Amino acid sequence: MRPFGYLRVGSVDEAVRAAAGQPGAQFLAGGTNLVDLMKLGVESPRTLIDVGRLPLDRIEELPGGGLRIGAMVRGADLAAAPAVRDRYPALSQALLAGASGQLRNVATTGGNLLQRTRCGYFQDTAKPCNKREPGSGCPARGGAHRDLAVLGHSAHCVATQPSDMAVALAALDATVRLHGPEGERTVPAADFHRLPGDTPERDTEIRLGELLTAVDLPPPRPGARSRYRKARDRASFAFALASVAAVLAVRDGLVEHAALAFGGLAHRPWRARAAEAVLHGAPATEETFARAADAELAAAAPLRDNGFKVPLAHALAVGVLTDLAAPGRPAPRPQGPAP
Q: Which of 57, 61, 153, 165 is placed for a possible disulfide with 72 were both Cys, Cβ 3.0 to 4.6 Å?
């Protein structure tokens, strides 16, 4: 690990000013991803700006029934919050599926969203990687890519975004709040992460010097239910091979509202707009759900060893939507130990 400076700040404005005045600075909160990458030599910030003690660690009610989640809220606290478990169960389920209890006790909401989109080649500095060194190549395309992208990838990168929480936030129409040198702005959670294109080194739409301060959840839709389901190689802490977050409201046997997002398939949480278009106003049946999944996954372009992800994601989507459409069916047990 290379030498670096350290600065602890006491306010959001101080953090933003410090970042603007120190090129090569990065914000540090829980550090569960950044510190690991520093140890590997992948990240080498000149200065760490410690924002972990900023007063952004509360879950607050918003007018109309929504929630504001501070960027420093720990994953364990967020998963266990009654308002989240009762009104946004997909978010609680995603958090419980996303990491070990030890990590959830440390990792923050902001850090979860800002963890790097990555693969094994990105974390191995002895290998080329366009995310780490633009223009050096993407060995994953012809190498070990079983766990990697089947949607939205490019010749420059096939890495996947590992955040389970981000998938749930995309389906729940959450909004990310940012504070930077030019003031405050918001970005829809579904658009916060980027596809790789020609610039895979850019994971998100965050701008230089901006600090993620909160995530806003809109009020739950009347009659809507939500769920998150994840397929992985082992039951303990592991990234998704494929996952689905869904919100569904059914009235008189027809889909009144549907929101669907896939994880583990792309460089960002994949909001399934084509599937949603098929679902809206259609009969809430397994046949409709299968047609919707077909419509979305028709765009998949799997590589040599990861084609299995397409039918896996299809089965997850149909299963989750079928469960949500059956109001008498009990919710599955959370994936992971209670925080």
A: 57
